[in-house]
Amino acid sequence: MNKSAKTITLLGVCTAAAMVLSYVETLIPVPFAVPGIKLGLANLVAIYLLMKLDWRYAAPVSLVRVLLTALLFGNAASLAYSASGAVLSMLVMIGAKRTKAFSAVGVSVLGGVFHNVGQILMAILLTGTAQIAYWLPPLIISGVVTGAAIGAVGAVLIAKTDPRIDQK
Amino acid sequence: MDKIKLRNDIILLAVILAAAFAVWGVIRLAMPAGRYAVVELDGKTIASYPLDTDIRVEIPSEGGHINVLVIRDGKASVESADCPDKLCVRQRPVSKAGQTIICLPHKLIIRIDGESGVDAEL
Fold this sequence. Notes:
- The complex is a heterodimer.
- Chain A is mainly alpha-helical.
- Chain A has one domain: Orthogonal Bundle (Arp2/3 complex 21 kDa subunit ARPC3).
- Chain A is 75% helix and 0% strand.
- Chain A has 6 helices and no strands.
- In chain A, helix 1 (3-27) crosses helix 3 (55-73).
- Chain A is globular, with a radius of gyration of 16 Å.
- The model of chain A has no long low-confidence stretch (mean pLDDT 88).
- The longest helix of chain B has 28 residues, at 3-30.
- In chain B, the strands form 2 sheets. Chain B has a 4-stranded antiparallel β-sheet, with no helix packed on it. Chain B has a 3-stranded antiparallel β-sheet with strand order 3-4-5.
- The model of chain B has no long low-confidence stretch (mean pLDDT 84).
- Chain B is an alpha+beta fold.
- Chain B contains 2 helices and 7 strands.
- Chain B is elongated and about 60 Å long.
């Protein structure tokens, strides 16, 4: 296979994997009565591509995953929430990687936290109710916990696998 | 794993958690007890119920959906709803000004307030 075919294949497989993880996540009941808490399983794919390769792989896969998942399993409102979370989270993770200060775990924690911050901002925007910010602390804490877990799994994947993409 | 990055990760985690708990503490302390449960549908205030009177009322929303609001012992909660996720039902009863129960699928917000927000009841 030539290089571009490899890249396309990798992006396709990763997008499919991210969508499956998004779907699996909807099957897992959330034990907390706070709206918006979730595992963020699909972020595993984003963190893997971002840290193993770079944002040019991670960002498109994340974007396509959000759009397709909303089309298949969601609605306009869920698209607005997941897109705002995914975009903000991706931007922050790209920035965090650039600082070279954090491992995959740190980057993933920031991604998890800002995914939830993005969703809260969208909820405030859509409902016009600033009091929703009341949910920020529990959502930030859940973002730290799930982000750390996803980042730890991602770090193992990054260390043990090789997507065989020749960079540059 | 890189030692410096591991240290930075731990500092990052600690700072974020500390900030979240600090914000939480400030919000909790700053919240006075509320007097009314104000019902907002799609951003518009449609009704308001005093917290000192026990009631059970059905709140209709778009598409014939229903959330059942219950006020008991000065606290408001959603007893049942026909939304898919039931997050509003699982939320704890609220009684402090600024607290909310939100049902995103029905665009419904029940907000505790010091004032009634509306003149007429539903």
